[in-house]
Amino acid sequence: MEEKKKERALCPVSKKCGGCQLLDIPYKKQLDDKRKMLSGLLKDLCPVKGMLGMEDPYHYRNKVHAVFSRDRKGNPVSGVYQANSHIVVPVEKCLIEDEKADEIIGTIRGMLRSFKIKTYDEDTGYGLLRHVLVKRGFSTNEIMVVLVTASPIFPSKNNFVKALRQKHPEITTIIQNINGRGTSMVLGDRENVLYGKGYIEDVLCGRRFRVSSRSFYQVNPVQTEVLYKKAIKLAGLTGKETVIDAYCGIGTIGIIAAGSAGNVLGIELNKDAVRDAISNAKANGVKNIRFYCGDAGEFMEQMAADGEKADVVFLDPPRSGSTEKFINSVAKLGPARVVYISCGPETLARDLKWFKKAGYKAKEAWGVDMFPMVEHCECVVRLERGR
Ligand code: SAH
């Protein structure tokens, strides 16, 4: 009970924000609960061996998004949407977000008035600044700030950038992203680099990765290493295998695995991420990897139709999971092992059933807590061909 009160007192907006559903629960119990939940969902499908947690479960998010609006008095506010609404809950400090990112967002909010920058009003379509996104390279300390504006015209942008850099010399790149649409998507398609190289880099498992504003990159760098190391261990690579990294994002898993594989193929739908993946392979001197842009299911189907084979398949689909088409094509490629990284345990359970039908049995699952304080659960499963 004592701990309950204490945790709640740590965050004044936890109720309205709703992001940290588990804030009141001691961390150790959170891990136990997540493990139980996973075991329940995978009952009869796969034994859950453990739930790997964090030593310090706070301020782990290296990607922070703030929506900008104004309060009744017309003062700029920034924060998160209240659950199921478009009311903005003002957030100054967040227990799970990177503290430097929150500080930069606070600075930007404080600069708006003197630069006469109006926050965007969703109802009237009037105003300029819609969102700010900050991404920080955990190992490199590089910081990207993305200013999402409703129109390309950004009066006094050079002075704004200069002033922001003066206050935060640690920022390494600033991007203006233009999103004029009436949509809940944060980022639009057009971008101007206002300062720096237009992306950040980070180091994971000894490899250097380039991350652009729109590419997917895991948000908890400490646990990402734990997850990747586990995934690669479960793959049991010997240096000879043909490996597929499906839903590969910026190529992280494939590039890390390439050192202990014969050759790797990466497949990803988002073309910015594929561009990042290709440059990441080059920058790391990894020559035995190729990336393809397209739908993972179609790619696998084509490979199977061409009579190709694979020894190990990694798949790391979005929360909606994979598809029957993908899974049946995996079976045709005939890998001895499949390593499934999942951020949606319900769709994982569904997909493991499809895998079973296709001749692959799930042998062990490990939960990796990428999102302390949050209900969300990530896990990695080793599957083997045969029943
Ligand atoms: N393995 C990467 C990315 C995982 S996130 C990492 O660990 O960082 C899931 C990725 O799947 C995203 O990059 C998303 O763009 C991609 N994706 C979503 N649907 C896809 C599809 N149908 N085919 C291929 N990639 C897809």
TrEMBL record:
<feature type="active site" description="Nucleophile">
    <location>
        <position position="343"/>
    </location>
</feature>
<feature type="active site">
    <location>
        <position position="343"/>
    </location>
</feature>
<dbReference type="InterPro" id="IPR029063">
    <property type="entry name" value="SAM-dependent_MTases_sf"/>
</dbReference>
<dbReference type="InterPro" id="IPR030390">
    <property type="entry name" value="MeTrfase_TrmA_AS"/>
</dbReference>
<keyword id="KW-0949">S-adenosyl-L-methionine</keyword>
<feature type="binding site">
    <location>
        <position position="247"/>
    </location>
    <ligand>
        <name>S-adenosyl-L-methionine</name>
    </ligand>
</feature>
<comment type="similarity">
    <text>Belongs to the class I-like SAM-binding methyltransferase superfamily. RNA M5U methyltransferase family.</text>
</comment>
<feature type="binding site">
    <location>
        <position position="218"/>
    </location>
    <ligand>
        <name>S-adenosyl-L-methionine</name>
    </ligand>
</feature>
<protein>
    <submittedName>
        <fullName>23S rRNA (Uracil(1939)-C(5))-methyltransferase RlmD</fullName>
        <ecNumber>2.1.1.190</ecNumber>
    </submittedName>
</protein>
<keyword id="KW-0808">Transferase</keyword>
<dbReference type="InterPro" id="IPR010280">
    <property type="entry name" value="U5_MeTrfase_fam"/>
</dbReference>
<feature type="binding site">
    <location>
        <position position="316"/>
    </location>
    <ligand>
        <name>S-adenosyl-L-methionine</name>
    </ligand>
</feature>
<keyword id="KW-0489">Methyltransferase</keyword>
<feature type="binding site">
    <location>
        <position position="268"/>
    </location>
    <ligand>
        <name>S-adenosyl-L-methionine</name>
    </ligand>
</feature>
<dbReference type="GO" id="GO:0070041">
    <property type="term" value="F:rRNA (uridine-C5-)-methyltransferase activity"/>
</dbReference>
<dbReference type="Pfam" id="PF05958">
    <property type="entry name" value="tRNA_U5-meth_tr"/>
</dbReference>
<dbReference type="GO" id="GO:0070475">
    <property type="term" value="P:rRNA base methylation"/>
</dbReference>
